[in-house]
Design goal:
DNA-binding; 8 helices; alpha/beta; homodimer; globular; Arc Repressor Mutant, subunit A
Chain lengths: ~220, ~220
DNA sequence: TACTGTGAAGTGATTCACAGCG
DNA sequence: CGCTGTGAATCACTTCACAGTA
């Protein structure tokens, strides 16, 4: 019944992952502000989380705190980044150079210390050869497989219309990406080599609307 | 201990809401294809859900099926839409006319039978006065409060940079929208009159990346 | 017969309350 | 003393298995 000695090897639930990811971002903000140590209570109040849950999440991964003091911001931040695998930059490609695709390719969220968007792909010849606002090159869709290999891309983002999504996903998986972030409201996969995560913006809006009705 | 006789008045969990919303979309597809009735089993297989869960979700809202037969697609679809409050079109405004804002304003996901994007807002004078690709007008941010009232907007979408998010959210809430869909990686609210739902695209990408590390 | 609706069992996540330590 | 780490309790959600019915 003793937990595995190696921390970070247990399965991490989706919810826990999101909380830890948010925690990591919160720590980055505290670091910028020059805060050296922080208690779970202070973290919770500042960033709208639950103190007990922060402690439990962290305790699941090892022992990071000092009793009576709290957590060392810089230390926790780097160890957490390492455990989550966010301490190195992964190469990302975006399929679909429409407004959404370009927004994602240029966004700070997709271009930080953990990710770098290296290419956009599109079938529209007027777009191919151009670059996004921040300079990400727009390549022809036929070159997807070769470019993914050359760039060493691990993650593919699907920002194409729903009808084109299954095909594009298959090509991404075939090209060897390990993860696919699908923004199209369509079912893609599953694939053997690649994990798919759906981000269905229509469902997001609808669930908000449902909450409004229910609350009324 | 008997459940309330009025169906659809219990709280609906976030997860259940998403499933029902997805179910509604699936029913729309079946209706397009001319399918008249469908069993929970067939629905589950076709759209990657769990049959028992579909039955339970639906049974929580009332009795919709016919034993030995299944569910009437058209009937279930319209009743479900009504219960979820998705049977009428809500007016949506989008704050921030960057790539993301315009992508959302023009997307079919935000312009169907349940939603209509009526305006974009931006502080950039070069954008103001123009229109998005599909014709949504871009209005000056100062007119937000007045326009929200005039248009009868119930939902505001935040597609502005993180630093501008809290201020924009406050103005939306002050203008009387009931729900705010926040795409900025920043904490906004909470507000008295308005529900906030965060859609943090950076967290989406990170959670996918974490799954890749964990699976490796 | 074939399916729904549902009590009951099972599973997992969240919260509580406090022992234990710096 | 103040805070973490954690067993225990609670809560919520999911799955199972089948009684009940058109």
């Amino acid at each position: 019944m003793t937990r595995a000695a190696r921390p970070g090897r247990e399965r991490l639930s989706e919810a826990a992952t999101l909380r830890l990811s948010l925690l990591l971002r919160s720590l980055a903000r505290l670091a910028e502000e020059g805060t050296a140590t922080v208690s779970s209570e202070a973290l919770a109040r500042r960033f709208g989380m639950n103190a007990a849950q922060i402690r439990k999440d962290l305790a699941n991964l090892g022992e990071f705190g000092v009793r009576g003091v709290g957590y060392d911001v810089a230390d926790l931040r780097s160890r957490l980044a390492s455990i989550l695998g966010l301490d190195r930059a992964r190469v990302v490609v975006v399929v679909g150079a429409g407004h959404l695709g370009q927004a994602l390719a240029d966004s700070g969220s997709f271009n930080g210390s953990s990710f770098r968007v290296a290419a956009l792909f599109d079938v529209d010849e007027r777009k191919v050869g151009g670059r996004s606002r921040t300079g990400v090159p727009i390549l022809p869709a036929e070159e997807l497989a070769r470019s993914v290999a050359e760039l060493g891309a691990e993650i593919g983002v699907l920002a194409v219309p729903a009808v084109a999504a299954p095909g594009a996903a298959e090509r991404l998986a075939g090209a060897g990406v390990k993860g696919i972030l699908n923004f199209a409201p369509a079912t893609v996969g599953p694939f053997d080599g690649a994990t798919v995560k759906n981000v269905d913006l229509a469902l997001c809006l609808e669930s908000l609307a449902v909450r409004l009705s229910a609350a009324g």
